[in-house]
Amino acid sequence: MTTHGSVPLPVVDAWWRAANYLSVGQIYLLDNALLREPLTASDIKPRLLGHWGTTPALNLVWAHLNKLIVERSSNVVYIAGPGHGGPGVVANTWLDGTYSELFHHVSRDGAGMEKLFRQFSFPGGIPSHAAPETPGSINEGGELGYSLVHAYGAVLDNPSLITACVVGDGEAETATLATSWHLNKFLNPVSDGAVLPILNLNGYKIANPTILARIPESELTALFTGYGYSPRIVSGGFDGEDPMLVHERFAAALAEAFDDIEAIQKAARIDGVTDRPAWPMLVLRTPKGWTGPKVVDGLPVENTWRAHQVPLSTVRNNPEHLAQLEEWLRGYRPEELFDEDGRPVAFLDADQPVGDLRMSANPNANGGLLLRSLSLPPLAPHAVDVSGGRGAVVEPTRVLGRWLRDLISANPDNFRIFGPDEVASNRLDDVYDVTNKAWQGSVLPTDEHLAHEGRVIEMLSENLAQGLLEGYLLTGRHGLFTSYEAFIHIIDSMFNQYAKWLESSAHVEWRRPVSSFTYLLSSHVWRQDHNGFSHQDPGFLDHVVNKKASVVRVYLPPDANTLLVTADHCLASRDYVNVIVAGKQPTATLLSLDEARAHGARGLSVWDWAGTEAPGQEPDVVVACAGDIPTVEAMAAVQIVKREIPDLAVRFINVVDLMRLQDSTEHPHGLSSDDFDALFTRDKPVIFAFHGYPSLIHRLTYRRTNHSNIHVRGFKEMGTTTTPFDMLMLNDLDRFRIVMDIVNRVPRLRVSYAGLSQRMDDERYAHRAYTREHGEDAPDVIGSAGLPFADERDAHGEADDTGDDNASR
User: CATH assignment of 9-363?
Assistant: First the structure.
């Protein structure tokens, strides 16, 4: 342990009082920030917003962490988990100077204090929780449950970092937080940093007691011991106890916890100890709303749920409340804490770290400052060769897995894959040639790829995979989240919060861009026929496109080579949420790598070779598609039409970047009206085979000239355990239905080709009957992943349907 002199506890107490004063001032005061005049109603904000109850404990922890950082030069990031703890975090960042450095108009003096108070929860100001606008924050405090998982994500591959994570006892009841305690089983004390959880046990939520506060202390200790921690409980502040006694107890416990962390890391890094350690954690039991009003209007407030938000709610028009507020504020003795100009007094300097050691200025909490670009391996060695003809059958995600293997080799300390036990299931298991799965638990002879050091973290919790990657990205690293498509809905709310974080960060000048959050969704709706209806849901795409166009990107690569190009693009991008949907089952490779690059750059393309229109000819119908399976079905439908109606001009369009369908005024990737009309025509029928719910295509194209002629086929909540082709027929996305749509929507065909439409209907019945009799799809829709032209010549010459060495898996 390295020390640089001790910080006296009276200084820590003064810092705590100053932070409490600034926190209360933010909630209540519009003017008279330093109380140089008696408080009046006009000094009070017209709308009192904010949360007081959790703030004193947050400030106490911050003040004591400052002490240890000053004494030991520790590298610490502070994560405030309790809901709406913004007043405390902002107060401390102003006290240590970072806030004024980043927001020059909020100077570190009386005038700046006035602005600090006025802006809090005020129109045009800042929110009441830790947010992107809050220096030192990587955890959005508006929605509860994510603090601890963010803390663990932040310290992965960050061996010098300690994240001190204050967990609210109400927050501790959320599903994500309750599971996050297990993340100590994935922390490698050699190559990772440390997380110090501090449970803020103040006893109450908004209107109810918290569970952990109402169980016996022996049970509480047993709970966290069972989770694998070494808990220490610090209680105090009740019944008028002198706060200095609490300072003494908490300072001792915090110092012991830091000593334990240092000892654990030394044992692993120097002595070679491999046993999973019992990491320290603290339980801080103090009154909710400590140091605030004890009784208001004859009702107890401190140490009750009434302290949760604004203890004195009618200050402007209630003289008694106004007097209590002034007494409350003056009780912190601000004249001892701020000089004549309103600056923090020099006495506080002893508890203030300097430079980047300030938790509010720690570069890890502004991860773009530390970001190193990925070394992206070349795509060509992994591309599927189609020089012999389109149609080589491969598992697209397995092809991607080989590229990811090389990516991990080239980036051994700043790229990870996260997922809920599905990396191998989603055909990415070639990465295990060069890495293992991080695991600190016991290992049995039957286990595979488990090791203390690994670039893959799998835990059967989509929430924790999401949160770990968020923490990893926000501290300056790169990663990928892979999941089954249907179950990614589990993190809908977490996605919301992260997208909002990125939206807000874009407006904060000093926030540096971070690597994009990229989802790879496989085991998708059209190849979950074996698992059934519960596994069939493409609706995450609908959820994603609700977010601002500046943040979200959605990609539906039709084949393996386009998937490679898409992944390469997404992992190099910054400040986006990228969603890639790609199948893992064998399917046809349709484009060469060069074609895939061009297609990816355009976002959508006319595939002349897949349509039937001649050069210079205006199409009779447009067949469009987005998604791997819809693309195969659309192409198969065009082949039938080519044979049955040889004079019909069909334009074939594939969409890989879904946001290209929006107008350019709504999304930066969108097509202009003229460009859209040139491709999809102004008046011709458009049959669109789509991976997801049909309504999403209509949402994206509702402003288009030809929208009334766009007919979309997609998933319509018809699912079961059946065969792949029967699944398509259940949802009317099969090739025969698409042919029927073409006949019915091209006016000149409705009568003259009614017989063809009837034959297509008969084909559907025949295929349905075949599955019922044989338990599998008919051979004519199975061969070469259902691509009927696989043995025909195309622009590349002779077709080759042999695939690669994994085609038979």
Answer: 3.40.50.970
